Fold this sequence. Notes:
Elements (H helix, E strand, L loop, with lengths): L1 H21 L2 E12 L4 E11 L3 E11 L19 E2 L13 H15 E3 L5 E4 L3 E5 L7 E4 L14 H16 L19 E7 L5 E6 L9 E5 L7 E2 L6 E13 L6 E9 L2 E10 L18 E10 L2 E3 L7 E2 L1
Parallel strand pairs: 15-17
Antiparallel strand pairs: 1-2, 2-3, 3-4, 5-6, 6-7, 7-8, 9-10, 10-11, 11-12, 13-14, 13-16, 14-15, 16-17, 16-18
Amino acid sequence: MKKIYAVLGILLLTLGIGVFTTTPFTTKIGESVFYKDDSTTLKVVLIHEHLPFHYIGNHYFVACQTAGTAGQPEHKWEKVEKGWSITPQAYLGNGLGSDSQALLQSLSEEAKKVYLLKDKKTLVILDDLSIDASFDGCRTYASWRLIEHMPTTAPRGSTPEYAQCLAAKQKDKEADTSSYSDCTMLKFSATNTPTFQNITASDQGNLSFDVRSPAFPDGLVISTKTSDFGKTWQDTSNKGPMVVTQNGTVTDNIIMVDAPSYLEVTKSEGRTMSFTKVIYSGDSCVYPAKNGFDIKKGSIVEVRGAKTDAHTISVCDSSEYYVR
């Protein structure tokens, strides 16, 4: 009889362990406040998720507390107490550090770069391919997605991720199996990741910003604004710079260390001589013309680039621009 009870005990223990290991749950590792003023507090919350057969590992959230979130219930799964709202998630990297405190500090430093308070109640959140904004103290959010507002001429070029996706789609096609989804947005991975610039916003529902990416053709900048809390978005883009191709003779090659390097190029036009400054390198030059440093005075060159003013051409904003 004792043997029977012993076997039953082992069986129940085994079943208990099995139920425990297959039951989803989370545990809180810690949290770190990365922004706080009289009306708004933002923090990163780090938890450990146990999702058998799906995911077991760490997960982070960003939570916001304002007067407007006072009625928010507790978020039990995310381990966020009542009175806080969970914001749309921006990518904060994989985190660095040998312990939980260092990891939280790393995530907080990244959060400071992409969670931006622009007015008393307006929070702007930058992700790789989108922007979210709350104008009412983290209660509701409006969203802008690049894929929904992308020019028909973008994106150009390729990335390793895009090439891998195309290869996987081809294999699926050959095997007559279900295919991967559209690969287009993978052209914005790695060095082509878009950047949001010139961001302005207010509690009155105004938000404007520019989006740049090396994947945009001819140095295109997407400019967008809303004046109605994100209900509608207006494209205010200058549809790209004037792209010109010009021939001429190099009269000087000005090589700089702390400023853009450029060629002075002249061209005879009847009885007059036109002068053009051709910028080919510099810290902000995305596609520098590497041969520019070797071009000698007296060389006859052809230049294709963006005309930034009446006497200046830049070859820096597109891989299709050149000096040769």
